[in-house]
Structures are given as structure tokens and as C-alpha cells.
Amino acid sequence: MKVSVVGDIKMGVCFARLLKRKGFDVVAFYSDSIETSVKYAVAVSCKAYLDLERAVSESELIILAVNDRVLKRTMRKIAAYKPSGKIFCALTAAETSDTVSIGGNNTYFTAFIPKYADDNGDYSDISEAPLFFEGFGELYHDFYDELYMRGVNAKFIDKTQKYGCALAAALTSDFVGMLCSIACDVSQKVNTGDGWVKDFAAESAYKALVSGTRSEVFNVNMKKALSEISCLDADTVHKLKSTIKVLEVMSVSYFN
């Protein structure tokens, strides 16, 4: 995922460094000040843009590293370019902050970063700090997937549970699909057939459909199923375990 940072506060450098270490493609820094753009671009080892529209258009994720008091003004400038299908993430160290929407099919987040500078005022390593995200939009799940799969210590605040429940259901659906896709592989490797896989997948699908947004989706005995798939190759088992881990994390995050 390509990332641009818009703004002039150190928090943007800290967050950009974290994303870059995790494998994100940090394209550029933009600031109203040429000196700040260059300074921060050097700190992150990326380009310095002097054109806000270019910074927005060339990236999928736009980090808004601006103070809360100028956030709305910055978003009004960006709105003039009519961006579409972008993820905007405003950074803040405050306990609460408004997420500014400019409409369209864009996705909006506020990231709460507890500490972004050390005692000397230098850029701080925030890789171990819990980062809290609150937002809404069509690409909510995509952003969650990117952060989680790259190992970012992200926690999502979903007061209505709308997005969390939808994400949990989507992950469950993927898991069921994975089980179904390997059913034939199982039947080819063992003489006992693939009945348990089909039963397990059917049970998972049924619970996902009838309960949807409830924790019953996760009541399927996944660990028991894992103990019965020793006949599968290591790669398949790894994929299953990874998917189960995601589902377990989701169940704790949104339903407990």
C-alpha cells in the first residue's frame, strides 16, 4: 500500500517510519513549508512533494499529520481535488478527535498515538506502543487487513460494532471457504474421506449466517479440528492456523 504524509508535526515522521519498517511503500512527505517537507522526507527516506494534489493522487493511504485546529482546513484543500477510493488517517495525541469527512467513497480514520517524541524532543520509536484507530468507510476492512497482516500493533475502536462485526463475518466466510477448498485435497490423501471437513465447514457457515454479528460465530471447535488435519501438508496447516488466529483475535476484540 502506497502512503503519503501531509502535515508538519513530528508524529507524522514517527508513524511513517513505523509503516515503512512494516513494509508499506511510503512515497512522500508534503508540507506547506518546503524546509519541513525536505527535513521530514530525509528523516523517513522518501520524496518531498511541494504539490498537495500529487501527494494525494499518488497514494492509497494519506496520513494527516496536522494539528486538530488545522485538520478541517487541510481536508477542505484536499476536497478540491475530488479524491476517490482513498484512506485518510488523521493522527492525534488527544484522547478524542473528530474524523473529518469530505464525502465520496473515501474511508476516514483517526489514529490515537500516545507518545511520538522522546524526552529530548526527537522522533520516538512507536513500534511497541498500542495504536488505536477509529473510523468508517468502504475500505475499513482493507486498512485493518493491511495493518494486521504486517504486524502493526493496532487496535480498532468500533463503538457501534458495525464494521467489526462485518469484518468478523468476512473472516469467517474466508475460513469456511478455505476449509471447503481443501476438502478434495484431504480426500485424496486419506482413505477416510473428507466428511469431517465438510461437516466443520457447514457448521461454521451455518453459525455465521444465523448469528452473524454475535459471538456464536466463533464457538466452532477450531482447535479440535486442527488436531485432526495432520494428514495435510505443512503449508495448508500454516494457512489454517493463521486464519484461526485472526478469527480468535477478532472474537476477543469485538465480542468479549
How would you describe what is shown here?
It is a single chain. This protein is an alpha/beta fold and 256 residues long. The chain has 2 domains: 2-157, NAD(P)-binding Rossmann-like Domain (Rossmann fold), CATH 3.40.50.720; 164-255. The chain has 9 helices and 8 strands. It has helices at residues 10-21, 34-44, 52-57, 68-79, 140-149, 162-189, 195-211, 222-227, 234-255, and strands at residues 2-7, 25-30, 47-49, 61-65, 87-92, 107-112, 131-136, 154-157. The protein has an 8-stranded mixed β-sheet with strand order 3-2-1-4-5-6-7-8, sandwiched between helices. Helix 1 links the parallel strand 1 and strand 2 (25-30). Helix 6 (162-189) packs antiparallel against helix 7 (195-211). The chain is globular, with a radius of gyration of 21 Å. The two termini are 31 Å apart. Mean pLDDT is 71; it is low at 117-121, 189-194, 208-223 and 251-256.
Summarize this structure as a short list of keywords or feature phrases.
single chain, 256 residues, alpha/beta, 8-stranded mixed beta sheet, 48% helix, 6PGDH_NADP-bd, NADP binding
Radius of gyration: 21 Å
> What fraction, in percent, of the residue positions are helical?
40-55%
Give the strand line-up of the largest sheet: 3-2-1-4-5-6-7-8
By DSSP, the count of extended strands is 8
The CATH class name of the largest domain reads Alpha Beta
Indicate how many domains the architecture comprises: 2
First CA to last CA: what distance?
31 Å
Secondary-structure-based class equals: alpha/beta
CATH architecture of the largest domain: 3-Layer(aba) Sandwich
How many helices? 9
